[in-house]
Amino acid sequence: MAYKVLNNILLKDVSSSGLSSLKTDLLVLVVNKETKTNASFKDLNKISKNYISKTISSHLKESGSSVLLPNIDGINAKNILLVKGLDKKDPIHKWLSMYQSVAHKGNHIGSKDISVMPGSVTPNGKDEFWLIEMVSKTIESNVYIFSETKNKTIKKPSVKKLTVLTSGLSASNLNNAKNAAKKGYAIGEGVNTAKYLGDLPANHCTPRIIERKVKAMTKDFPKLKVKSFNEKDMQKMGMGSFLSVSRGSEEPARMMVIEYKGGKASQKPIALVGKGVTFDTGGVSIKPSPGMDEMKWDMCGAATVFGVMSTLARLNADVNVVGVMGCA
Description:
Blueprint: E1 8-13, E2 26-31, H1 33-36, H2 39-47, H3 51-59, E3 66-70, E4 79-84, H4 92-108, E5 113-117, H5 128-142, E6 161-166, H6 171-199, H7 207-220, E7 224-229, H8 231-236, H9 240-246, E8 254-261, E9 270-276, H10 300-315, E10 320-327
Parallel strand pairs: 1-6, 2-4, 2-5, 5-6, 9-10
Antiparallel strand pairs: 3-4, 7-8, 8-10
Helix pairs in contact: 4-5, 5-6, 6-10
């Protein structure tokens, strides 16, 4: 099973319809020089009686800083989040961090949907389609909250819908923007799928449980085929070194080979191999107790393969890939 949080990601052009009539729980405006000259933004500011522009001047001093404005008369959005935009020279990790904060804010205030106007400023060497892809990917992968095995006080993600707002794109560019959003969404879903396996406690993420989850995912994506090998199969293939890892456990090992065929039949496949030790007990007698729970993350290589394969299938990518998950 692939693990997605958002039900969908939409693109909406607001060059003519304006921002004031947009119904959303959280309207995110990334503010820079270009934003202030945007007709939709000017209209929004006018309706707020310059409250928005005054707040920008008084509160947004540093790049990436933000302020939340709830319930402004005449504006349909329940909340407006103003974010001080970054500069073209700022490193990529700052852009990611800015939109991570947007996703966290949406969950924190209980928003069911977020509408983001990222503006036209992009990092050096990147275009607006990269920006749309990055926004989609970052918000999908950061509204994620693991709650499956936790008590009821742990909040589940509230955000279920993202709308990326554009202004004045041509028909061809709008199509490119939709493809960028789709790609970002698929990558974010793959990230969440990998994180989900990593977040499961070791006793809820044994080799056989992972095997069931892999088989469940292939039901969603016809281009994915999985072949699973049990310990008897691996003994016949002479995989003694691998089997020695699971010999001290009551849980039997599993080896899953996932094939994705999206390219030409003549195309040689790319191979991905992920380590899936579901709990590393090696040298357990000398390991410090405070970090013992982290030994469950020794299966994150296999989890990454799992996530990548789900992304490829979601994108219907034109490539052939074989993913191997060795779980013990």
